[in-house]
TrEMBL record:
The keyword Transmembrane is annotated on this UniProt entry: yes
Similarity remark: Belongs to the ABC transporter superfamily.
TM stretches of this protein: 213-236
Pfam families assigned to the protein according to its UniProt record, in alphabetical order: ABC_tran
UniProt-recorded name of the protein: ABC transporter
InterPro entries assigned to the protein according to its UniProt record, in alphabetical order: AAA+_ATPase, ABC_transporter-like_ATP-bd, ABC_transpr_TagH-like, Bact_Polysacc_Export_ATP-bd, P-loop_NTPase
GO MF term set: ABC-type transporter activity; ATP binding; ATP hydrolysis activity
GO CC terms: membrane
Residues of the ABC transporter domain: 312-532
Keywords of the record: ATP-binding, Membrane, Nucleotide-binding, Transmembrane, Transmembrane helix, Transport
Length: 541
């Protein structure tokens, strides 16, 4: 397309868009309310969270949302602006992104419960342009245990029915009621006649208004079709170029695949194609984009025991360095709401990629696109001082994570109770076992509300079997809140159970991205092959 034709096309599009804008009135769309999960299943006598997401279409809009919940089976604890008689109120100003509320509840009785949006609207700051919600959503909450509320509700309904029958019997006896009823019947007929005249008048006004709108709609549709025709012509013009670029990308992808897998014996390559098909399941909104990331470190070839010796060796020019790639041209995307697991053998660069995504490290090459204000990195033992007590390390480690002193004061007892270290908080951490340190680190890291993007670095491999189950339950609560999760774990069952996509990084190189069952199977096959080769070498030696 020549430059002159392009200018003519641009001028035509601008003119048509101007006509469309002047012929259509634009109104505020309003907002919407979503829940973190389609349904919830909770245990008897337990506390749990329900994620509520409020989004508006304009930064200058205010919102007012009312949620109703079953206060016979659930007890509200905290998380909203106010609550009264089973009605939770959420209020605030409009945001450019979604605002998340983590509502905390406690179960009271077993049975089928609920929480639903019963009313809501958005408006301008001065109260004008009020728009109701398009959809009032609801989710079911199933609480395990005995339903002690159902019998009480049935007794209440029976009492109300008896009162209604008694009132009806009294009305049949009274002759005065008959006279009043006759007079009400006459008034009702007159009112119905008057309403019919009003409805007929309103109907005629509506028809006249509709007849005036039809020409404007027809003109708008014609302009829209013309614009779409021009766009379609441009798309067809460049279709060959897109197909050519797509073919080049596919060839490069196949070349990288052969390069990465030529050193391993994978019996069925069709599994790789199945893994690539997982891309079809991805959403449209990318929250983490890792493109061609390379992380290169410089390591001294000589061991230096102190700063003095280092400078002496440096002056003698005996210090030399070698470079190695912790990550080599790694690329993948994470979409909103996904739970993505990263697997690989020790030293493959899994924790390095998490630190790059969270902003702790800057890549040598490549680019990572993510809103780091929404990212929360959960890692164990970061910033622990072994010479300080457990109590002091709670505040030290919490400050490094980003918690305020007030927040830590409010949640201190909760952290200690979850870590099961009530009798050891005044002991120095150097006297703790590795399991105790891990439990304390996990309790501190997960004390706050879940961020929109969670990054978990081996936080599920802590403590004994009982504590691992408890920690997994807390992580699942954070995941069910609707967060996007990027996690590292060596436990294949944990990856398969909780992840919707798996990224396999081996020796700094991207090996496979796809469905958990396919990627984990290929990873386990590689480990088995390597173990057999080591066993054969040992037998020969």
């Amino acid at each position: 397309m020549t430059r002159l034709k392009f200018r003519r096309l641009a001028a035509t599009l601008i003119f048509m868009c101007f006509l469309v804008i002047n012929s259509i009135n634009v109104y505020a769309i309003g907002g919407e309310v979503n829940f973190g999960s389609d349904e919830y299943t909770e245990e008897e006598d337990s506390k749990f969270f329900i994620g509520v997401y409020v989004s508006t279409t304009d930064r200058n809009q205010d919102y007012h949302i009312e949620l109703k919940y079953d206060n016979n089976r659930m007890s509200y604890i905290k998380g909203a602006e106010s609550e009264e008689d089973g009605i939770i109120t959420l209020e605030g100003s409009g945001l450019s992104s979604t605002r998340k509320y983590m509502l905390s509840f406690e179960t009271l009785s077993g049975g089928n419960s609920y929480i639903s949006v019963v009313d809501g609207y958005t408006c301008n700051a001065d109260g004008t342009n009020r728009q109701s919600l398009d959809e009032l959503k609801s989710v079911n909450v199933f609480i395990e245990g005995e339903d002690t509320v159902g019998e009480t509700e049935e007794e209440t309904e029976e009492l109300e029915l008896e009162e209604t029958e008694a009132i009806a019997a009294a009305n049949r006896v009274s002759p005065v009621n008959d006279v009043v009823s006759t007079q009400n019947s006459v008034d009702q007929k007159e009112s119905e006649s008057s309403n019919e005249m009003v409805l007929e008048t309103n109907f005629l006004e509506t028809v006249e208004s509709t007849i005036g709108i039809v020409p404007m709609i027809v003109g708008t549709v014609c302009i829209f079709l013309a614009i779409m025709g021009i766009i379609a012509a441009v798309v067809v013009k460049h279709s060959k170029k897109r197909r050519r670029n797509r073919q080049i990308r596919e060839d490069n992808k196949a070349s990288r695949r052969n390069k990465y897998f030529n050193s391993f014996d994978i019996q069925d390559l069709s599994e790789l194609e199945d893994a690539d098909d997982a891309d079809d399941l991805e959403g449209n909104e990318t929250v983490i984009s890792v493109q061609n990331v390379t992380m290169r470190f410089r390591v001294a070839t000589q061991n230096v025991s102190g700063i003095k010796e280092y400078f002496i060796q440096l002056l003698k020019r005996n210090i030399s360095h070698r470079e190695f790639n912790a990550l080599d041209d790694v690329s993948f995307d994470v979409y909103k709401g996904e739970v993505v697991g990263i697997i690989g053998t020790n030293g493959s660069g899994k924790s390095t990629i998490l630190k790059i995504v969270s902003g702790v490290l800057r890549p040598t090459e490549g680019d990572v696109k993510v809103d780091r204000k929404k990212v929360q990195l959960l890692t164990l033992g970061t910033g622990f001082d072994m010479e300080l007590t457990g109590r002091e390390n709670v505040y030290l480690n919490g400050a490094i994570i980003g918690y305020s002193r007030k927040f830590l004061d409010e949640h201190y007892d909760e952290i200690v109770k979850f870590a099961e270290l009530e009798d050891f908080m005044d002991e120095k951490v150097k006297n703790y076992s590795s399991g105790m340190v891990s439990r304390l680190g996990f309790a501190i890291a997960t004390a706050g509300d879940a961020a929109e993007i969670l990054i978990l670095d081996e936080v599920l491999s802590v403590g004994d079997e009982f504590f691992r189950k408890k920690s997994l339950k807390r992580v699942k609560e954070m995941i069910h809140g609707g967060s996007t999760v990027l996690m590292v774990s060596h436990s294949m069952p944990t990856i398969k159970e909780n992840c919707s996509k798996v990224v396999w990084i081996e020796k700094g190189k991207l090996r496979m991205v796809g469905k958990p069952e396919v990627v984990c199977k290929a990873y386990q096959h590689m480990n088995e092959t390597t173990s057999n080769e080591v066993a054969q070498v040992s037998e020969v030696s």
